[in-house]
């Protein structure tokens, strides 16, 4: 094994290694082997190449580093510590202290088992579920390309940045990573560099047990430039590889680095035993001896901090200060563009962003909410310059194209476009959305509701990361019709409502669509899910029924009786009109009924108790919920006496008009259920 | 475009095309373009190559044909019709009649919008959600290889078969297909052939919008043999390609076929407008003219039936009858092996299959249910020869390895093994499981519970297809501890319970593990999900508490008071012992409490009302449910007065022992909740 390094380089690298080993040992839990193997890569990247100012970790034009193999979290924490990354822009406290590292994997430590994005500055995304980080990195690279294309002017190179992602066998075995790599190759994202830790070890043993791809060949076929480094300890080769990436201007780069897990550990190196368990005190002592490491546990020699300060720190400070000067000049010459960019990056909604949201006249024949959704989306996007996105090859069906002048397509060569063609790659699409959101944009992604299953792991991460990705899912029930059970969502409303920190909107007519989009855009610390129909829905007469303005409260009384109702009828989406019809029938029969529209259960549950009781009085226990999905999310408001009109099985292939009666989802059944509930 | 064909070949191909066009037009819904383009491929494969007896569509050793691009369903229905496939082995009625085709996409027609496996003989799997069919085909190829390796004897070639899957751009863009292809390449599944319809058209337009991979290069890098056919109408080239597949004995084969969507349609050929909408009467008339087609709508000339009968039919009948003769001879010489194979394929459980399921002595320190699960799984697998499976690179953690003598690994060269190394490819793993189950085996697949999200679309298809795949998910809650929120399931119990036709088991101690495995194996028409802990759980003293035998009823009273209880305490998995502790504390305080173990909510809801009321009497409305997941699935049994002790947010990174109190999941909180519920 060739090792070409000065002693200070080796010392810094070993500081990252030993901090990682010590922390895992102290926690008695974690993954020491990968940090030990990959410290030279991270050292070379951060200290020699990354455009990053440790004093300003939120600088929008910084290069991004993503640790996709999140289980190697100590590699990141150790690096952030020795690199002197600060807690916030201009702060004096470090982002990660030695005490934080001593408390690795303990309650309230920012050094969580896997990196969590808001826990400490310098953590660019939450990783751990394999494949997500590399896919996030594609979204970040897109954000860099898009900002550069949209805002750089001749003579300025202000808004772009490079994105590096370090990944493992596990990342690259997951299907999402091929989807993401295929997308990046297609888009020729030359600002994207993945570094593949080719260590031949997985949890079950040697990768030969399950994984024998020609990785360079595969990536070349996906349109990538590939560089191979034979030894993770060869700093010159690593340096040359990063230089080659920077020189490659027409495609993304994969650097394949052969490494030895737990490098330097006398008995555990190159074994899967070093993957996910502490090395043990004896092995650590022997490894430190092999490194020539003479310092105490958790000790970092002063020279290491100085090394990073003299390289990464000095280079970053200079780059940041040049950027500030250039941006000031740019601002003078391009006041409007600068203001637009600043507004996007701030995440604030500009004055009047919602003023063109259309209203829809009452119309019994009505309009599909996917269609009104498309109109509302366009009206908002025209005012909100950071709102951009697309569909997984279903734009003509989901109606999510931005059609106003200047919207354009995001394609190789036209990186300023706002319409994305994600291809039939739902999972990567959502993870790319996360990467775009983490870069300050407001992405939306779209597919048929049933295929939300394909992207669920990334939606969960939007929720964990509080990333305001807007998910637009159309074709939301058996209303899909002829395509049949594989294409008809039944359990998906329940399943997505189950995820903490997601707001699921299912508007009941086109005016609710407008109100729900407004509410969703205003939620900046969580993903929103917009669930829309394929089929036409009547646009309700809002002179006769309550206006849709209270949609943001999650539920509101849309039609009511005098005095205390005998029964509450509640519904969402395409079933809201059945609720209204049932309300009218019951009222005509002299039954005192209240109709409640429930476009967002989560937001309703977040209202104060007084509002909740106002809408659904505790004393009214006769209740009916109507939704073309399963019952589970409604039990909380139904109690033992309530009845449900909806689905309890998969759907069927037939015209939609026949399926609703076939599955008993009709106004007459709602009336019947109401009477039963009153009588029980 | 070169067309080399005899007139009868062309007539048969055009019969498939015109039936498909007519059916889509009649339904006014569906996908005509792909059947028109690919009819020559299916014709060549079925009539010239497939080992398939139309009179015996369930013959276990038939070659399998999977239409992965399920939206082209009419291609399959038309083919099954003209090929004379019968409704069942030996039946005289056809599987698909012209009337069925006339009722394409109508309620109760077996010709559903997408192929549904149990709707008609000859449909090998349910397809539509893209990428699933190709991944199923890997499972089927595995089943063929495994049966051949396990049961063929020198001089016999009885149990193997080939598997063909026809797939689209959409299939191959989905990440799952790369996972599946990588697995197949690694395993050198030479009995597997994918045919890729390279038509350059997707819904949003030309594939160049989003998809510019070098597909042959990619598949070669994945270990496949690649054959290219320049023209889907070149029957000689297609014939040669299938012959080349059959000659390739060391790897799977991809045949890339360039096609023109809606071939022959004068104005709609080669446009995405022909993908998902009827052609229209005029275009159909013009297309039929271009084909030289002079027959009526839905008419099939007698020569076409004769063509298939003379080729596919004669070849299939001969092969099947030779197989019968050979098998009879084999049976005489290898009675035990023949009986074992027949028993596997019948799906029946052999006498005494469950007799070695271990019981576990009471033990306060206890054992993790993943550990007892591994023991139970081994005890069953040793008696159930068709039970086989593995993990997505987590076997040392999920404890799902089969360790008894003769279990072995399934690897290239040792296809008789029963332990699979699926790699870090959860999604393909589950879809492969579906393919294995559809081939008559009893597969299990395994990963951490949180990563059930990665395979959810395939789990949904297990449920739709009634495929008895056993999902073993360990590390089932915040009990995961230090790995943190990305690795801690919170919403997953709710989300999987939401899927119709799935049984979710979460056993509360090791003896419930045994009872739940027994119940799961006995469910042969649905997938079962086994949810197991990472951490130790006390093994309850079943002398003191009720035995676990009623686990199969979903819920049972495990400890009770005299007379009518004041409060019902119910829980699952790791929280069952908290329920018991709370029961003891309340009892000691003089509160009349009943403890209920609920290992499977779905099975409990399927019991008759009398049993449900016996366990949870209606009049007892003070109730507490305890589960380290979200509340949603419990509302149905809690009503307005019940209380829930569980999770309402994502977890955190810390030792598990600290997390349960941190999130309020303790016996004391259960006691407190019980008192509140009684008091409210």
Automatic annotation (TrEMBL), chains A, B:
InterPro entries: THDP-binding, Transketo_C/PFOR_II, Transketolase-like_C_2, Transketolase-like_Pyr-bd, Transketolase_bac-like, Transketolase_BS, Transketolase_fam, Transketolase_N. Thiamine diphosphate binds at residues 71, 128-130, 170, 199, 275, 451. Its cofactor is Ca(2+); thiamine diphosphate; Mg(2+); Mn(2+). Keywords: Calcium, Magnesium, Metal-binding, Thiamine pyrophosphate, Transferase. The keyword Calcium applies. It is an enzyme of class 2 (transferase). The record marks 31, 275 as: Important for catalytic activity. Substrate binds at residues 31, 275, 370, 397, 475, 483, 487, 534. PROSITE patterns: TRANSKETOLASE_2 (PS00802). Residues 367-539 form the Transketolase-like pyrimidine-binding domain. GO terms for molecular function: metal ion binding; transketolase activity. Its EC number is 2.2.1.1. The active site is at 426 (proton donor). Pfam families: Transket_pyr, Transketolase_C_1, Transketolase_N. Binds 1 thiamine pyrophosphate per subunit. During the reaction, the substrate forms a covalent intermediate with the cofactor. One of its GO terms (biological process) is pentose-phosphate shunt. It catalyses: D-sedoheptulose 7-phosphate + D-glyceraldehyde 3-phosphate = aldehydo-D-ribose 5-phosphate + D-xylulose 5-phosphate. GO terms for cellular component: cytosol. Mg(2+) binds at residues 169, 199, 201. Homodimer. NCBIfam families: tktlase_bact. Belongs to the transketolase family. This is Transketolase.
């Amino acid at each position: 094994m060739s090792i070409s390094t000065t002693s200070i380089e080796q010392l810094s690298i070993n500081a990252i290694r030993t901090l990682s080993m010590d922390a895992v040992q102290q926690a008695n839990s974690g993954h020491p082997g990968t940090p030990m193997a990959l410290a030279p890569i991270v050292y070379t990247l951060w200290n020699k190449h990354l455009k990053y100012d440790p004093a300003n970790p939120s600088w929008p034009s910084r290069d991004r580093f993503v640790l996709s193999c999140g289980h190697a979290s100590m590699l990141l924490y150790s690096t952030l510590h020795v690199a002197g990354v600060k807690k916030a822009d201009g702060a004096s406290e470090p982002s990660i202290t030695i005490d934080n590292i001593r408390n690795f994997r303990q309650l309230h430590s920012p050094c969580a088992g896997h990196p969590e994005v808001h826990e400490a500055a310098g953590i660019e995304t939450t990783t751990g579920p394999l494949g997500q980080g590399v896919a996030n990195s594609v979204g970040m690279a897109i954000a860099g390309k898009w900002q550069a294309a949209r805002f750089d002017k001749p003579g300025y190179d202000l808004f772009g940045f490079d994105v590096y992602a370090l990944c493992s066998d596990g990342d690259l075995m997951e299907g999402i990573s091929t989807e993401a790599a295929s997308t990046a190759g297609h888009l020729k994202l030359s600002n994207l560099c993945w570094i593949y830790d080719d260590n031949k070890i997985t949890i079950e043993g040697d990768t030969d047990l399950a994984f024998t791809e020609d990785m360079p060949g595969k990536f070349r076929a996906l349109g990538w430039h590939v560089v191979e480094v034979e030894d993770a300890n060869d700093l010159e080769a690593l340096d040359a590889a990063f230089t080659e990436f920077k020189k490659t201007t027409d495609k993304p780069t994969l650097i394949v680095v052969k490494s030895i897990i737990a490098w330097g550990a006398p008995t555990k190196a190159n074994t899967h035993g070093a993957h996910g368990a502490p090395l043990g005190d004896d092995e650590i002592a022997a490894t430190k001896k092999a490194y020539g490491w003479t310092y105490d546990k958790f000790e970092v020699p002063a020279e290491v901090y100085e090394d990073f300060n003299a390289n990464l720190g000095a280079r970053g400070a200079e780059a940041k200060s040049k950027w500030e000067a250039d941006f000031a000049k740019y601002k003078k010459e391009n006041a409007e563009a600068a203001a637009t960019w600043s507004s996007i990056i701030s995440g604030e909604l500009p004055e009047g962003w919602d003023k063109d949201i259309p209203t829809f006249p009452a119309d019994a024949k009505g309009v599909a909410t996917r269609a009104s959704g498309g109109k509302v989306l366009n009206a908002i996007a025209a005012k909100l310059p950071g709102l951009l996105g697309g569909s997984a090859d279903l734009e003509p069906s989901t109606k999510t194209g931005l059609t106003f002048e200047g919207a354009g397509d995001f394609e190789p060569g036209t990186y300023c476009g706002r319409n994305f063609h994600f291809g039939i790659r739902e999972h990567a699409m959502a993870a790319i959305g996360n990467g775009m959101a983490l870069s300050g944009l407001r992405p939306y992604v779209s597919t048929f509701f049933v295929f939300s299953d394909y992207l669920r792991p990334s939606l969960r991460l939007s929720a964990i990361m509080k990333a305001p990705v807007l998910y637009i899912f159309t074709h939301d029930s058996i209303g899909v019709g002829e395509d049949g059970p594989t294409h008809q969502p039944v359990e998906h409303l329940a399943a997505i409502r189950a995820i903490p920190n997601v707001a699921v909107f299912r508007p009941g007519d086109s005016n609710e669509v407008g109100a729900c989009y407004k509410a969703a855009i205003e939620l900046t610390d969580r993903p929103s899910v917009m669930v829309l129909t394929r089929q036409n829905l009547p646009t309700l007469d809002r002179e006769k029924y309550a206006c849709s303005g209270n949609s943001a409260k999650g539920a509101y009384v849309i039609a009511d009786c005098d005095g205390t109702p005998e029964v509450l009828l509640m519904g969402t989406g395409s079933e809201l009109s059945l609720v209204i019809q049932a309300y009218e029938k019951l009222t005509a029969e002299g039954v005192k009924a209240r109709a409640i529209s429930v476009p967002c259960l989560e937001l309703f549950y977040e209202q104060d108790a007084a509002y909740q009781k106002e809408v659904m009085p505790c004393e009214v226990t006769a209740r009916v919920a109507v939704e073309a999905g399963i019952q589970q999310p409604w039990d909380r408001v139904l109690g033992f006496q309530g009845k449900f009109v909806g689905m309890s099985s998969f759907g069927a292939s037939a015209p939609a008009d026949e399926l609703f009666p076939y599955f008993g989802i009709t106004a007459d059944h709602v009336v019947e259920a109401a009477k039963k509930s009153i009588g029980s």
